[in-house]
Amino acid sequence: MTLFTAAGGVSSGVIGAVGGFLLTVIFFLGVPLGCWRLTASRGANRVFSRIVVRKLHEKFMKRVGVPGSFQSEYVLVGTPRLPNNLVWRLIQVISVVFLIASDATLLLKPPSPMTEVNYFFAFGFVSLSGVAPFIVLLWVYEDAGLRRYDANDNTVSKVGTWLEAFFVGTGVATSFLKFALSLGGGTIEAVGAVTALFLTLVPPCLIVTVIFHREVQAKYVRKFLSSESVKTLRKMESALG
User: Fold this and answer.
1) What is the pLDDT of residues 185-202, one digit of tens each?
2) Distance of alpha carbon 191 from the chain centroid
């Protein structure tokens, strides 16, 4: 926000500074936050009832070779609650953004370092607005107390653990390092580009995550717990036990 406000002020004075500030708020924060809220509000129940319960994702996991047992049921455990801190979730969001941006940019092979940086920024913003919301759904399920029970090995785990493992890990650092090395143009130029990307992408990831949890996460957890899918799940649990 400071960078874009200052840049607008330098180029166009007070009007430019105000424009830069508003652009930052609307574009970098408003759009991703709106996508997160829409997905959590409209998608939590639909994804659970149409994909998770029907286990369509398990078919996909088998196709891509994700190991694991697929004889599972979904149960509600404990008391719904939000996490004590957001460190792990902040790491998840940053990892999603940088992994997809790195891999997509390397895949397209832009013709110049500047184009690479532009591509990376664009894919990073798209990831924050369009991919991270699916991780947000996992947070809603986790905070609601929804768990996956594996009858084969008698274990209970969070819903979508495999998805978190896919996006968060050493692969993120490796992909980003490959992207940084692909920039070329000398060490100073590469370091400058990487620093600029961190300054423009990391703060929105952090701010959107914090605002979402402080303002609306609890509301969407309650909404999911009052959905028909959860009511049906509770009736099934009561019938079995």
Assistant:
1) 667 777 888 888 888 889
2) 26
* Domain around 75: 2-240
Number of structural domains (the chain) is 1
Considering only CA atoms, give the Rg of the chain: 21
Nearest Cα neighbor of 124 from 57, 196, 181, 189 is 196
Give the separation between CA 191 and CA 15, rounded to whole angstroms. 32
Strand, helix or coil for residue 67? coil
The tokens 């609601």 sit on which residue? 144
In angstroms, the CA 134 to CA 39 distance is: 8
- Residue 99 has which token pair? 């992994």
* pLDDT of the residue at 180: 84
To which H or E segment does residue 203 belong? helix 187-215
DSSP three-state, residue 77: coil
Task: Give pLDDT tens digits for 28-74.
Answer: 788 999 999 999 999 999 888 887 777 766 666 666 565 555 567 88
SS3 154: coil
Helix or strand holding residue 95 (H, E):
helix 87-108
Q: How far apart, in whole angstroms, are the C-alpha atoms of residue 185 and residue 84?
A: 44
Cα angle at 88 between 84 and 92, to 5 degrees?
140
**What one-letter code names the amino acid at 129?**
S
DSSP lists the bridge partners of residue 149 as 73, 156
